[in-house]
Amino acid sequence: MTGFPGSPRILKAGIVPLDPVTSAVLTSRMIVLQYNPDTLSRTLQIQAVGADGRDFSEALRLKGPPVETFKLDAEIDATDQLEKPGENAATTESGIFPQLALLETLVYPTSGQLFANDARQGGGELEIVPMEAPLTLFVWSRARVVPVRVTELSITEEAFDTALNPIRAKVSLGLRVLSVDDLGFANKGGGLFMSYLQRKEQLAARGPGGTLGQLGLTGIP
How far, in Å, CA of 35 to CA of 15, rounded? Predict the structure, then answer.
């Protein structure tokens, strides 16, 4: 007989950055949430042609995928790690600064990019190309791996050690899904978006559906 297997392994949500040129996973910049948020808010803004109601012939047409956004709150807590300082030297030294810094670098260009652009300006270049960030993927289960842009990042540091390193914080994230309208079909992110959409369609096909009788109708008037 086998023993009790214990609690099931819970998958973690997180953010995976990809190299914008090679699409390789930048493992050193991956963010795995310490605790999965209790809630995930989603908003879909429909991209309809006849949204203003002025052209009745276009009322049922869509210009493209809706603009989808995610909002979530996450917690980072180093209290348990600080109870074993010998096993968690980095946390003892810096608290949760490294985890917060990883999140913050999602919305910063790198120092190297800033220095390079400054050098170009100093060299007399008239047009400076905006700096390219990694392609960011939001991962919430195997069924939801979607390219996103961080649109909102709010951090509330709630507790500190004796050196004023933060040891507990709440993070609020706003993410906008990047579709093929933003990235194109040839881009790695565009392909991931299409897989995300096809997965939605597969799940919708499993829905129970219904009958007119359930709505009190025998037919459409």
Answer: 13
pTM: 0.86
- Give me the pLDDT at residue 23, please: 93
CB 160 within 8 A of CB 185: no
pLDDT of 39 strictly over 70:
yes
Residue 139 to residue 72: CA distance in whole angstroms? 13
Give the DSSP H/E element, type plus range, for residue 122: helix 111-122
pLDDT tens digits, residue range 111-133? 999 999 899 888 887 777 888 89
- Tell me the three state secondary structure of residue 184: coil
Q: For tokens 């050098």, what's the residue?
A: 119
Contacts of 127 (CB under 8 A, 6+ apart): none
How is 53-120 classified by DSSP, letter by letter? SS-GGGTT-BSSS-EEEEEEEEEEE-HHHHT-TTT-HHHHHHTTHHHHHHHHGGGS--HHHHHHHHHH
Identity of the residue numbered 62: L
Angle of CA points 56, 58, 61, to nearest 5°: 140
Structure tokens at 72: 């979530």
Q: How far apart are CA 187 and CA 205, in angstroms?
A: 27
Looking at 152-212, list the stretches that DSSP marks H as alpha helix, in order from N- to C-terminal side.
180-183, 188-205
CB atoms within 10 A of CB 48: 16
Interatomic CA distance for residues 90 and 210, integer angstroms? 56
Q: How far apart are CA 100 and CA 153, in angstroms?
A: 11
